[in-house]
Amino acid sequence: MPRLAAGNWKMHGLSDDLAEARALAATWPDPPVDVVLCPPATLIARMSVVLAGSGMRIGGQDCHAATSGAHTGDISAAMLADAGASHVILGHSERRADHGETSAQVADKVRAAWDTGLTTIVCIGETEAERNAGATLEVVAGQLEHSLPRNATASNTVVAYEPVWAIGTGRTPSPDEIAEVHAFLRGQLPDPGIRLLYGGSVKPANADSIFALPEVDGALVGGASLKAADFGGIIAALGRA
Ligand code: PEP
Fold first, then answer.
1. How does pLDDT run along the chain (241 residues), one tens digit per residue?
2. Which of 74, 19, 7, 6 minimizes the C-alpha distance to 41?
3. Which of the chain's ends, N or C, has fewer CB atoms near its CB within 10 Å?
4. What are the chain's domains?
5. Which residue lies with its CA nearest to atom 8 of ligand 1?
6. Which atom of ligand 1 is nearest to the CA of 8?
7. Would you say the pTM of this structure is higher than 0.90?
8. 91 CB under 6 A from ligand 1?
């Protein structure tokens, strides 16, 4: 499978910001790696027009486990697909923290997304306290086991290892720490071909050193995905790796 650069715009992005997606597609008419941009739900349909023909794909940032129903404010996997998404991020640590999402709930959402034909980007990662307690591998193994149904395959799933304390902080684990977790996770995946992304303060300046690590198949990028120049720098680094 090609390497993957996925951008998570989180709750950032109004109509004018589509100019960044337009600039990205113009700079990378034929990107050297797979690229998925995950804007807020309000921009998915318009971004799918902007990126049409670019080879870049679009993802949602969450979906409900039900196909439809009385769930005010929620969005179903089918709605994401209908708007133009092919992927969906599930179990991001901000969803787990802000909305109390459990790994079991994430697994239900994963199944719903698969049923609709979406590829899931399933996020796992330890808090700083868990790392300091030496519990990182135990935590990520538990999250992986309970968030990811065992019939996950490389074609319907991507896993993103995102240490919570590295997200949006400018701090990253050492290369050895990233390599240790990725090597461990590779052995825990239900299908060893599932792409394993690193996420947490990836920037153009540190991308080369992260992508040089074994078992790192790409990145899930937050802040640096908002600007075409920054995300483009990460795409270029991944293409070189
Ligand atoms: C993320 O949102 O998944 C993320 C990794 O954010 P950042 O790159 O800003 O740390």
1. 999 999 999 999 999 999 999 999 999 999 999 999 999 999 999 999 999 999 999 999 999 999 999 999 999 999 999 999 999 999 999 999 999 999 999 999 999 999 999 999 999 999 999 999 999 999 999 999 999 999 999 999 999 999 999 999 999 999 999 999 999 999 999 999 999 999 999 999 999 999 999 999 999 999 999 999 999 999 999 999 9
2. 74
3. N
4. 3-240 (3.20.20.70)
5. 222
6. 2
7. yes
8. no
